[in-house]
């Protein structure tokens, strides 16, 4: 059951009574998905109305920007070819987390800024709704059917838009409104969520390239900057990507191409064809060739890996070593958590079994692929690290894998009576 209020009637939105805006709003209502973000497009339009006034074309674009690409042909016929082109470009930038928004046309930067502001307002509205539901539960004792946590905005995305759309939207008021709301969010979010015992982890603020311990080459710098500012990259993936790139940076035979490619191959796990299209303007063709043609998470078998370029073989080995090291660390952290009481003892057997099973599979897969090819990587230090990590993983498995119970020998049957031991 949908626990969210129905969409507002058009007369209650505060939007101007313009036929185009009305048609756009009714299309929006028909396509908006129920949930905490169902009013995101409406908030975008309201923000633009407050800062730019009653501009029917811009307000309609804001409302239509949440529609799926499959509808753009119809929208082009209804609202004009230019509107369709703006929507297509805006959607492409939205799918990549506005990581390349500096390349967008002014109308798209305008929509991106409104969307970033609306995402912070979505959070505020979600927080207010959460507070009301908690208060009602405390007053009545009736638990809500579904208690959705407030939708936390993507801070990296908002920061990118604030930095690269600023001054190109045509509205200083809009530009400064995003900066003001973003600063307020960063200052108050932890306190607001702590009220409901909801944890908040701010995105990691990565250092400048000079402190990254990577090969000092322009192509590596470009990849590092794309990765550490990309709104769709997750911190865990970025950390693994940096570790793999640092390992390759220490190997003289590893080229800058391999180091740059491993940063983005591991760090941008969910990269899309749109990312690769934008990156053509930012990265060398040989880095892009590796990203287009290969994926370290699916390196293939020995035959495929042997036929791949040396750079990719090195990338795949670095990814395997880092991933196995991370899995081993996760297993050891379970033991630490059990020792210090952070993990309930009742969960210990299940968590240890899960860690052992994952490590076993990873070690087995790596040994099948990488061990027979140990002479084909030209990375002696990395190959040695791989062996050490594999040995440590096998030791962990041996120590914590449940031993099979030995079957005890069946008891001997009683000795039959001989007939010579009776008495009168």
Mean pLDDT: 90
Contiguous helical run count = 17
Summarize the amount of helix as a percent range. 55-70%
C-alpha Rg, in Å? 29 Å
Outline the biggest β-sheet.
none
Q: Which class do the helix and strand fractions yield?
A: mainly alpha
Q: State the separation between the terminal residues, measured CA to CA.
A: 88 Å
- How would you describe the shape? globular
| DSSP strand count | 0
* Strand content range: under 5%
The low-pLDDT segments are 419-424
Order of helices and strands: HHHHHHHHHHHHHHHHH
Write up this protein:
The protein has 424 residues and is mainly alpha-helical. It is 61% helix and 0% strand. The protein has 17 helices and no strands. α4 runs antiparallel to α5, α7 packs antiparallel against α8 (172-194) and α9 runs parallel beside α11. The longest helix has 35 residues, at 106-140. The radius of gyration is 29 Å and the shape is globular. The N and C termini lie far apart (88 Å).
Ordered list of secondary-structure elements with their pairings:
Layout: H1 19-31, H2 40-52, H3 56-64, H4 72-79, H5 81-95, H6 106-140, H7 155-164, H8 172-194, H9 218-229, H10 235-249, H11 256-267, H12 273-279, H13 285-293, H14 302-307, H15 310-339, H16 348-369, H17 380-400
Please provide a brief summary of the model.
This protein is mainly α and 424 residues long. The chain has helices spanning 19-31, 40-52, 56-64, 72-79, 81-95, 106-140, 155-164, 172-194, 218-229, 235-249, 256-267, 273-279, 285-293, 302-307, 310-339, 348-369, 380-400. The protein contains 17 helices and no strands.
């Amino acid at each position: 059951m949908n626990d969210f209020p129905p969409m507002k009637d058009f007369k209650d939105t505060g939007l101007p009574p313009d036929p185009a805006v009305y048609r756009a709003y009714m299309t929006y209502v028909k396509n908006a998905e129920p949930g905490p973000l169902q009013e995101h497009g409406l908030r975008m339009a309201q923000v633009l109305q407050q800062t730019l006034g009653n501009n029917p074309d811009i307000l309609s674009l804001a409302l239509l920007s949440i529609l799926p690409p499959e509808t753009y042909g119809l929208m082009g016929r209804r609202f004009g070819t230019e509107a369709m082109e703006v929507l297509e470009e805006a959607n492409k930038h939205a799918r990549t987390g506005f990581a390349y928004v500096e390349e967008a046309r002014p109308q798209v930067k305008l929509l991106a800024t409104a969307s970033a502001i609306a995402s912070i307002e979505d959070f505020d509205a979600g927080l207010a709704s959460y507070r009301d539901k908690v208060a009602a539960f405390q007053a009545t004792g009736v638990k809500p059917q579904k208690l959705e946590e407030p939708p936390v905005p993507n801070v990296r995305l908002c920061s990118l838009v604030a930095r690269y759309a600023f001054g190109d939207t045509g509205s200083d008021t809009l530009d400064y409104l995003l900066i003001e709301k973003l600063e307020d969010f960063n200052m108050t979010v932890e306190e607001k969520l702590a009220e409901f015992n909801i944890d908040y982890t701010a995105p990691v603020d990565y250092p400048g390239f000079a402190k990254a311990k990577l090969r000092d080459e322009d192509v590596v710098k470009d990849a590092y900057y794309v990765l550490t500012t990309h709104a769709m990259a997750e911190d865990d993936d970025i950390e693994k990507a940096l570790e793999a790139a640092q390992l390759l940076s220490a190997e003289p035979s590893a080229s800058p191409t391999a180091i740059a490619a491993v940063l983005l191959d591991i760090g941008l796990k969910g990269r899309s064809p749109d990312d690769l299209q934008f990156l053509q303007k930012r990265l060398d063709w040989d880095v892009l060739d590796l990203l287009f043609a290969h994926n370290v998470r699916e390196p293939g078998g020995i035959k495929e890996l042997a036929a791949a370029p040396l750079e990719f073989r090195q990338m795949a080995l670095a990814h395997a070593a880092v991933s196995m090291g991370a899995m081993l660390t996760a297993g050891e952290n379970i033991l630490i958590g059990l020792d210090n009481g952070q993990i309930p003892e009742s969960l210990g057997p299940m968590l240890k079994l899960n860690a052992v099973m994952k490590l076993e599979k990873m070690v087995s897969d790596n040994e099948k692929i990488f061990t027979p090819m140990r002479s084909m990587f030209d990375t002696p230090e990395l190959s040695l690290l791989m062996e050490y990590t594999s040995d440590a993983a096998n030791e962990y498995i041996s120590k914590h894998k449940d031993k099979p119970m030995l079957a005890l020998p069946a008891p001997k049957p009683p000795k039959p009576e001989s007939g010579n031991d009776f008495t009168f």
